[in-house]
Design a protein that fits this description.
Order of helices and strands: HHHHEHEHEEHEEE
Number of strands: 7
CATH superfamily: Vaccinia Virus protein VP39
Distance between the termini: 40 Å
Number of domains: 1
Structural class: alpha/beta
Largest sheet: 7 strands, mixed
Strand order of the largest sheet: 3-2-1-4-5-7-6
CATH topology: Rossmann fold
Oligomer: single chain
CATH class: Alpha Beta
CATH architecture: 3-Layer(aba) Sandwich
């Protein structure tokens, strides 16, 4: 999939944003040769499997200017970097416990000239502060993830949707989510037509969830 597909799904991008999305392919291919963090198959499908997948969160939730979002277990910078390009006036904190992954994230962020990203090489339990939303791509089962981010979500919401977790997941989630009565699940096939998204979902769990 080419970068132009991103522009079709998100037609209101500025020229700066389009340039940044175009640069992702070059930057990741370059850094992946030095520090391998994305599989060869995935790097060839960067815009489908990583960039567009990350932007699925934006189809569910538009972040307001000035809000704060934490990406837990960001890996090579997903979903945080594509979302930071899309929302230049939102502050993103990208967290990963593996140093070489954060190194790549920092280099890509510098290459893109993004000024709305902070990076932290630590476990999420060690990260200070609170956030409007916490985003992630399937780094753990939801009960484990909820435990990790306890106390990290602001109580006061500035969005219409209550603050909480926005989680990119795939497959059958019924067992994993059975104890969360207020969870909402969004199928990404409602927004993207590529077959890759047939099992892909965004899971939203508000702060005051009922277990």
């Amino acid at each position: 999939m080419k970068v132009e597909k991103i522009f079709e799904y998100f037609p209101n991008l500025s020229e700066t944003q389009r340039t940044q999305f175009r640069q992702l392919d070059i930057l990741y291919k370059d850094w992946n040769q030095k520090i391998n963090i994305v599989s060869r198959k995935d790097i060839e499908e960067l815009y489908l499997r990583h960039v567009l997948h990350s932007l699925g969160i934006a189809k569910i939730q538009e972040f307001r200017d000035g809000s704060q979002v934490m990406d837990v277990g960001t890996g090579g910078g997903f979903p945080g970097i594509p979302l930071a390009i899309l929302f230049p006036n939102v502050h993103f904190t990208l967290v990963d416990s593996i140093g070489k992954k954060i190194k790549v994230v920092e280099e890509v962020v510098a290459g893109l000239g993004l000024e709305n990203i902070a990076t932290i090489n630590a476990r999420v339990e060690e990260v200070p502060g609170q956030f409007d939303f916490i985003v992630s791509r399937a780094v753990a089962a939801m009960p484990t993830f909820v435990h990790w981010v306890k106390g990290r979500i602001k109580k006061e919401s500035v969005h219409d949707r209550r603050n909480g977790i926005l989680y990119l997941k795939g497959g059958d989630l019924s067992e994993e989510l059975q104890n969360y009565k207020t969870v909402e699940i969004f199928d990404l096939t409602d927004y993207f037509k590529e077959s890759f998204f047939e099992t892909k979902k965004v899971v939203y769990l508000p702060l005051k969830f009922k277990g």
